[in-house]
Each structure stands twice: as structure tokens, then as C-alpha cells.
Structure prediction request, 386 residues.
Amino acid sequence: MKKSIGLMALSVAAFVVLGMPKSAFGIAWPSVAVDFGRPVADLGLVITVYVAGYFLASAATGSLTRRFEMGSLLMLASGLATVSLVGYAAAPEWTLLLTSAGGLGLAGGVIDAGVNAVVAVRHGARAMGMLHAGFGIGATLGPLMMTTLIDTDVSWRIGFMMLAVGQGVLALLYLRTRAEWKVAPDSVGISPDDRPDRRGVLWGALTMFALYSGVEVGTGQWAYTLLTEGRGVSIATAGGAVAAFWAALTLSRLGLGIIGHRVSIYRLLSGSSVLVLAGAVALWLDPVAWAGPAALVVMGFALGPIFPLQTTLTPSRVGVAYTPTAVGYQLAAATVGAAVIPGGLGLLVSRLGLEVVGLVLAVAAALLAISVEFLRRSSTGSRATA
Prediction:
């Protein structure tokens, strides 16, 4: 029992540290651009390199776990993340910074997929909620840390060195616990006769994860611009609404970690997806002045449980032995959705104006609700909580 609690605490800590550099870099970027003499637009290049590494590693996690023990794989990935963060902090030239971004993406993809797979197989919805709440906490702490350093005239490089130290500690902890990170085929799962068609369910899950990430990231990236430049909402109100969106998402995952064992997973998923759609429609139609900011809070709170709960259901859908592979593919699909929908919105906004943001998010939310229902129907033969 103590080992299980310790491993879960380490998993949450890993996700806190995983979330910090992703959000901190956006705060550090203006200073980074000045130090390297790069145009502000080059942030897109750094993000592209990072996302490419994340995608490749996520998709390859299943193959890697068939060659390496999960604990050893997590230890190596954490070591790569440590080296990459040191590269961020010490990079003397632009090429090394880009290389470090790719390395951090590769490491992050393996850690994300690997830890998700272990928690999905060995723990329940509560643990998965806490895991993803940890990521939200890290994504909140990263900008706060980097802003504090820059505001006190401390170099952004110190911030990444601090993150490297944290990641290095995690690598040592993975080394110490590497024998405990097992996805045992005989511990959880369903018989082949009870399992739905794996290929059909997996494709449905990939679609769902892509749509989910597209709605989450698209809302987080475009809502502020829509409210301020498109609808004349004050900077303070719009900024507070976007912050509330992320806070609500994190709080709902914390709530899942507390009461997740008392609720029906499929009912919670259905209710959440419908609430996301209602919020997206309210953001699009904007019937009253406060509708947009309020809709963001509703969407954040409703989006929170979807990703961790769908990941929790993976073993019952595809079998325990295939879970690391499936989780890796799901995270790769999420990466694609997080790039395609927000990026596509940029093209549409340039042609049709900012109000298209609400429409696209509403359509994507509707498709998300449909995909959630498809997965529920496809999984009726499993032993997942219904």
C-alpha cells in the first residue's frame, strides 16, 4: 500500500514538473528572443520542434515498452529532459536551443504516455484526476516562477536550470523505483470475448482525443483575443476569464481526484461533453455581455474530467497489454488536435474575422460530444464503469 501511494505521489510530481516548462517558456520567450537576436515570430518554430518530438515519442511509446521496462524508460526520458532543460539554460546559440526543444518534446512524450498508462492500468479515476490536476498545477506555477524571476531582473536561464534540477531529482527517483513501474497483463483487463473491436474503439478514441485537445487549446489560445479585440471586453476581464478557464479545468480534476470513485464514469463523461457544448454555443452566440467570460468558466470546468476519464477507460477498451501503445497513440492524436484546430483558427480568422472562433469551437464541441457517445456505445461490452 505504501509503495502504491509513493508511486502515485511520484506520478503527480512528475506531471507538475512536466507542465511547468511548457507554460514557463511563453513567459520567457520575449527575453529569449532578445538574447538570441531572433524575431518574436520564431516562437512558432520552437513550438513546432517541441511538438514534433512530443508526437513522435508518444506514438512510439508502445514499441519502446516492448523493448524496455517502463521504469527504465521513464528514467531515461527524465534524464533526457534534464539534459534538455540544461541545454535551454546554457545554450550559447540558437541551434542548441532548438535541439533542446526537440529533446524536451521527446522526453515529455514518453513520460506523459508512460505514466498515463501505468496509472490507467493500476489505479482508478480518482488517481487519474489527481495526475492531470498535477499537470494543471505545474502549468500554473511555471508562468508564476518565470514572471517572478524576470520581474526581479534574474535571467530566464536560471528558471530553466531550476526546472532541470527538479527533473534531475525525478530521474533519480525513477532509478530507485524502476522495478515498480510495471503494466502487468494479468492484473487488470477483460477477456477477449468481452472486449469490443479494438481497432474501431481505438480509432474512435483517437478522434475523441484530437477533438478534445483542439477544443481545450483552441479555447485557451483564442478566447482572450476574441473577447478583447472582437467584442471590446476589457483586458482585465478577458484575462481573468481565461485564467478562470484554466483554474476551473484544474479544480474539476482535483474534484475528480476526491470523488471520482463515487460517480459513474460514462454518465460524468456524457454530462461533461454536453456542458462543454452548451458553453461553446454560449461563447459563440454571446447573447448577453457576460456570456463569453461565464462560458469560459463553464467550458473549463466541463473539459477537466474528460481527458483523464477517457484515459482511465483505455485498459478496459483495448486490453492491458496494449494499453501503453494505445495511450501513446491517444496522446499523439491529442497533439495533432492541439495543433490543427488552433492553427486552423488562425487561417480562418484572417479570412472571416474573429467571430468565427466561437462557431468553430461550437462545431468542434458538438463533434466531441458525438465522439464521446460513440465510445460509450462501442464500449458497452467492456467492464468499464457504466
